[in-house]
Amino acid sequence: MPSTPRSGNSARSRSARPGDVDGDQQPQLPQPFDRDAPVFVISVAAQLAGMHAQTLRQYDRLGLVSPSRTRGGGRRYSARDVARLREVQRLSQDEGISLAGIQRILDLQNQVSALQSRVGELTVELERTRAALGAGARVFAAGRTGDVVAVRAGQRPSRSTSRSQSLVIWRPGS
Description:
Layout: H1 11-15, H2 42-49, H3 53-62, E1 68-69, E2 75-76, H4 79-93, H5 99-132, E3 139-142, E4 148-151
Antiparallel strand pairs: 1-2, 3-4
Helix pairs in contact: 2-4
């Protein structure tokens, strides 16, 4: 007996789609996937995070997660937002932390991330500056008045109005 094609509503066809949840498994997003793209409506984000849509609205009001908005005012959640919702839920349920405590934790995590980013920027800037100065080599010379001045390699100290004829000899190790 020939088999008839199944409709698109079967359990097998539903679970085969990317992003669907099968039992307790976390959905796997197709690769490559922009984690910051606001693509999930509130009902889908709630299902992915394992919470009620009203909980997402409350978290939005409290500032725990800030989804993007459509022109009509509808919420759109990114994969990063969903991951943050899961983290809020874990901290609240498993660790017993209040929502105010979770907000403080998330704020501190954001500060740490911003500071790490700034350290990276400053490290790059420092490396460029060292390279521009000749791989960290510093050159010193005696100025017209006998002062020791830092100069760039191949550069003479600037002339001053004084015409001193003094000569300073420096011998390292003496």
